[in-house]
Design a protein that fits this description.
Blueprint: H1 2-34, E1 37-43, H2 49-60, E2 65-71, H3 77-83, E3 89-94, H4 95-105, E4 110-114, E5 117-118, E6 120-123, E7 138-142, H5 145-157, E8 162-163, E9 176-178, E10 184-188, H6 193-196, E11 202-206, H7 207-210, H8 217-220, E12 223-224, E13 233-237, H9 245-254, H10 257-267, E14 271-272
Parallel strand pairs: 1-2, 1-3, 7-10, 7-11
Antiparallel strand pairs: 3-13, 4-13, 5-14, 6-11, 6-12, 8-9
Helix pairs in contact: 2-9
Length: 276
């Protein structure tokens, strides 16, 4: 009888310890799942990039994700930081710009989501019609290869210049085969195009930069590029960070329908976001 009581006590204690162990393990798993995950993102002060990032930041809080947004003052730092794993994401550029930086520097950059398309257009402080540009008109456009090529393609579509065939986006001034008006070209950093606007006959820039010249693409441009999904704005990561579950959740928040509706409601004069 005593032996039976002893065995019962030992068994009860063992079960108790087992349940206690399970309880601690469950608490650990629960604690891990509720722990806030931090995702870092670099952007630039060109609407609507930071506004979209902030909108997403507020959404993912409900998923225990803290999206830390930092600002860069040039186009090199965001890509360099992501490639070197100093940041998880960046959001400030279109696909061609990212691809150019990736190939030029052999950087680990991955476009994990496509979002809005910034209107790319031509603006003049002097002329209402692009065909009114005089001989030797001064044209200011971005110096980086992706946006510079985009600007030259725009001028070719407006029939102001002719380009070598089949050059795509990777074109430069040397690819101009005809320039009937002898247009004069000035290449500057994209951020300086709005600064140079008043001193030009024509300035070509993306919608994200027009705010710095008090311009609205839909109403102030004298020539707009047709929608081209190759220039969709992309959310960029590196191959390692892109695999993290919290980064995947942030990505899904960027491309969600409510995010698209937020952008079109507030920035329809600057960007498009067709359902692709």
């Amino acid at each position: 009888m005593k032996l039976k009581s002893l065995l019962t006590a030992v068994l009860t204690a063992s079960i108790g310890f087992g349940l206690t162990g399970c309880s601690k393990q469950e608490k650990t798993v629960s604690s891990e799942s509720s722990k806030t995950k931090v995702v870092t993102l670099l952007t630039r002060d060109n609407p609507p990039y930071p506004q979209v990032a902030e909108y997403v930041r507020d959404k993912v809080k409900n998923q225990n994700i803290e999206l830390k947004i930092k600002y860069a003052n040039d186009g090199l730092i965001p890509n360099k930081s992501v490639a070197e794993n100093e940041a998880d994401l960046n959001y400030f550029q279109h696909k061609y710009y990212m691809q150019s930086a990736k190939e030029l520097n052999n950087w680990d950059l991955v476009a994990i989501a496509s979002t809005f398309n910034g209107m790319f257009g031509a603006y003049s402080p002097k002329y209402k019609n692009i065909n009114d540009l005089p001989d030797k008109a001064k044209i200011v456009f971005p110096s980086d290869p992706s946006n510079g090529g985009r600007a030259l393609n725009l001028l070719a579509r407006a029939k102001l210049i002719e380009l070598k065939p089949n050059t795509g986006a990777k074109i430069s001034l040397k690819d101009i085969t005809a320039n009937p008006k002898n247009l004069q070209f000035l290449e500057v950093e994209h951020a300086l195009v709005p600064v140079s606007f008043q001193d030009s006959d024509l300035a070509i820039m993306a919608g994200a930069y027009t705010i710095h010249a008090d311009l609205i693409p839909k109403s102030d441009s004298i020539y707009l590029e047709q929608d081209n999904q190759e220039y969709d704005s992309v959310l960029v990561s590196n191959s390692k960070a892109a695999q993290r579950p919290e980064v995947e959740l942030v990505k899904e928040a960027f491309i969600a329908e409510d995010t698209r509706e937020f952008v079109l409601k507030n920035y329809a004069d600057t960007v498009t976001w067709p359902k692709r």
